[in-house]
Design a protein that fits this description.
The chain is of the alpha+beta class and about 400 residues long. It folds into 3 domains: about 80 residues, Double Stranded RNA Binding Domain (2-Layer Sandwich); about 110 residues, Tyrosine recombinase, N-terminal domain (DNA polymerase, domain 1); about 190 residues, Intergrase catalytic core (hpI Integrase, Chain A), CATH 1.10.443. Helix content is about 45%, strand content about 10%. The strands form 2 sheets. Strands 1-2-3-4 form a 4-stranded antiparallel β-sheet. Strand 1 and strand 2 form a beta hairpin. The protein is elongated and about 100 Å long. The termini are far apart.
């Protein structure tokens, strides 16, 4: 590639991947990677052999600093000294915040789930940057990592574990780029595992509080008496045993309704197909629509796009559904609490309620696990159910609805 006078404006303009040589006559170049990272290098001939020197990363090493280092290497060559054996490590070390800003977009490209991409950034910004964001990465110690994790290790175990892994990945990136030396202070085995309790030994696994099966009919009757899209969305979540974000993002174009003849042939009234981006397993999920679900959808016909929109025609927040359950618990004389933790039940815990009912009543485990969008048994056995068992799941959901309605329930 032709040499040109490199400028800061060019370096900051997101140039295409490749090598760009400076016209300073020192062999200085900037190497732009496919991910957008920029590393300084210098080609120099010594003892009849061509060699390449690394001079650090841009912007941590500025254009002026790179030119100065390249000139010093040329001066060493003129004195008969091999610059590769004499050069000093670049002293400019990025802060954790600077390196995180560089690494996170690279990591996000490998994540297909939009929620996971956002969580990667949000957890670093919330839990990590306020405490070590301004520290050069080579000054971060295991004590810094412990102080980040200790306040959330027992109360938010899953979140804390993910935060630790994300810090470790960013610091691995720092080590690979020679901004710091191993070992990684965020590593678990033989490191933080000595200072923090093992996850199985933490007092309680952080399960979502579940509605007790014995309270389900009383709770369902109370829920049906409430108005608003939040209550309707919570009803649909309960009937489908779905996750909150799957229901809150439900759209009319995801729903296929059958005519009477087709419904009679299939044994259910339609299909709702939740797209991969809203599913935890990143696979589309089909749900058979039974008659009570159709009646519920009829109450939402005034909406467009989203089935359960907010007042601003955006997806309901997760807190909206949680608030409905919290008010129901607070306003009930007995309350609706988890049997083990005695904490108020939450929307996600309704999936556990459904699963417990399945076990207690001897329903089909395979149909239940497919309804919950879980994998089960061996890969071979799970592959056998690639047809989704929609008729069997429709029967299961009808039985679940009849249970919620009580002994006198009638359903088509």
């Amino acid at each position: 590639m032709a040499k040109k006078r490199l400028t800061s404006q060019f370096l900051n303009s997101n140039p295409s991947p490749g090598k760009y040589y400076d016209d300073s006559g020192t062999g200085l170049f900037i190497n732009v990677g496919k991910s957008g990272t920029k590393g300084w290098g210098q080609k120099i001939r010594f003892g009849g052999k061509q060699q390449e020197l690394g001079l650090g990363r841009y912007p941590y090493v500025s254009l002026a600093e790179a030119r100065r280092l390249a000139s010093e290497n040329q001066a060493l060559k003129a004195q008969g000294v091999n610059p590769k054996s004499q050069r000093t490590k670049v002293s400019v070390v990025p802060t954790f915040a600077e390196l995180a800003e560089e690494f996170i977009p690279i990591k996000q490209k490998s994540l297909s789930n939009a929620k996971h991409r956002e969580q990667w950034r949000s957890t670093i910004e919330r839990y990590v940057l306020p405490k070590i964001g301004r520290l050069p990465v080579n000054e971060i110690s295991i004590q810094h990592i412990e102080r980040i994790l200790s306040p959330i290790w027992e109360g938010k175990t899953e979140t804390a574990s993910r935060v630790r892994g994300r810090i470790e990945a960013i610091l691995d990136y720092a080590i690979v780029n020679e901004f710091m030396s191993p070992p990684n202070p965020a590593a678990w085995k033989g490191n933080l595992s000595i200072l923090l309790p093992q996850r199985p030994k933490i007092s309680e696994e952080n399960h979502h509080p579940a509605l007790q099966v014995g309270d389900a009919q009383r709770w369902w009757a109370e829920l049906k008496s409430r108005d608003g899209h939040g209550a309707l969305a919570l009803q649909m979540l309960t009937l489908c045993a779905a996750r909150s974000n799957e229901i809150r993002g439900m759209r009319w174009d995801e729903i296929e309704l059958f005519d009477r003849k087709k419904a009679e042939e299939r044994g259910y009234h339609g299909i709702w197909t939740c797209p991969p981006e809203r599913m935890k397993a990143n696979r589309k999920h089909r749900v058979p629509l039974i008659e009570p679900m159709i009646r519920l959808l009829d109450k939402c016909q005034n909406s467009e796009g989203l089935v359960f929109p907010s007042t601003k025609n955006k997806p309901l927040s997760d807190m909206t559904l949680s608030a409905v359950m919290r008010r129901m618990n607070d306003e009930d004389a007995v309350g609706y609490v988890d049997l083990t933790s005695r904490r108020p039940a939450v929307p996600h815990g309704l999936r556990s309620t459904f699963r417990n009912w399945v076990a207690e009543t001897g329903q089909s485990r395979e149909a239940a696990e497919l309804q919950l969008a879980h994998k089960f048994a061996s890969k071979v056995e799970h592959a056998y159910y690639r047809t989704d068992l929609l008729p069997q799941r429709a029967d299961l959901l009808r039985d679940w609805f009849c249970f919620l309605e009580g002994p006198d329930a009638m359903i088509k």
